[in-house]
Design goal:
Elements (H helix, E strand, L loop, with lengths): L4 E3 L2 E9 L6 E6 L2 E5 L8 H14 L6 E5 L5 E7 L3 H9 L2
Parallel strand pairs: 2-4
Antiparallel strand pairs: 1-2, 2-6, 3-4, 5-6
């Protein structure tokens, strides 16, 4: 189960990134974190940028609403997304 925190009009949750995938997309849950595959390599922030674009597309929000709070150099990251509700986030999780 993915743990979601509401904080200041935004949602915080953990994301486990799988870089160098054949295509980018949200694929499920892994150890309490949302698992996201990104096609970009983990070089010079390319995977982080692709992660933010992928999450923005999945949640139908602008990329500027997605922020990596911690774990910039790690596969496990803390992400903040503005402009969505817990229900919308759960509906994306349930559609996987």
């Amino acid at each position: 189960m993915i743990q979601i925190l509401e904080q200041g009009g935004a949602l915080l949750f953990k994301v486990r990134v799988v870089p160098r995938a054949s295509r980018s997309g949200v694929v499920g849950e892994h150890d309490g974190a949302l698992r996201v595959r990104v096609a970009a390599p983990p070089v010079e922030g390319a995977a982080n940028e692709e992660l933010m674009r992928t999450l923005a597309k999945s949640f139908d929000v602008p990329v500027r609403y997605v922020l990596i709070v911690s774990g910039h150099a790690s596969k496990l990251k803390q992400v903040q997304v503005k402009g969505i509700t817990k229900e919308r986030l759960q509906s994306v999780f349930n559609s996987l």
